């Protein structure tokens, strides 16, 4: 256990342009009776030490929760993955807003986007958050603004991102939060419930994830303290991140995320084994991702990484969080460093954790 603590301590640096104040680790293997819960550092610029039970913003790890719900709805016959997503909407106002979501080469391809395209980031849609710097600038200017899917898409259309499609649907992989925004709208349309209610019913209550809730949409479920992320030296503690919603809005703990990823990848959340296999279809292994995102193997709300000879399945987060599981050995690895501008350090830490565990 000390080795892992030492790795985490190497990352702690409260100075510089991208300070890392804390690091949380959880390593679990029931066969070996291993359940390491490690906390290093302080919660922020204060001297208050962090503890292993602290909650944190999960960011894009939320996408795995959302994709799980979509696939449950598929099992129940409420949708087919090959369905054009627009065909699933009975609300004409919603359908009208979404009917011009994607143009490529000046041609409207919105009606060609399938639910599977959205799950796999193969819709051709731009990212409403990352593809125009004005969105984050607006967040910093108005940190208390409440977001919903309509005012998010207002910005999307205002910035003409709908007119700047990456490709036609199905033609290429492009990681975009817009895909999971649309999937979350779809969940509400098909269930006639709010997204957080569906989360509660299908996942949070079922798995007794008592430290997990949809921030800004639900009240805190417990008094467990929270460590908030930084974007460089800018604390996001007082920033309303309701724009993340079904693509990144969950607050959780390492223990809860461990329960979730294990339950999911051991087949406990679906009726059929085939559904999980579908979710874990990484046929496009090592897809080239534009700009600085490197290579990625992506299924349906799940990523696959290979460290040495060991394959890990899970998801990472822009906040410096990672949740991964090794099927062959029933081992899970969860970490969070609460710094947006240090993804390479989170990757390094995961690599060290996995290499040490299997050495």
From TrEMBL:
Short name of any one Pfam family annotated for the protein: Beta-lactamase
Presence of the UniProt keyword Protease in the record: yes
Keyword terms, alphabetized: Carboxypeptidase, Hydrolase, Protease
GO molecular function annotations of the record: carboxypeptidase activity
Classification via InterPro entries: AmpC-like, Beta-lactam-related, Beta-lactam/transpept-like
Residue ranges constituting the Beta-lactamase-related domain according to the UniProt record: 49-341
Superkingdom, natural source: Bacteria
Listed name of the protein: D-alanyl-D-alanine carboxypeptidase
Organism of origin: Polaribacter irgensii 23-P
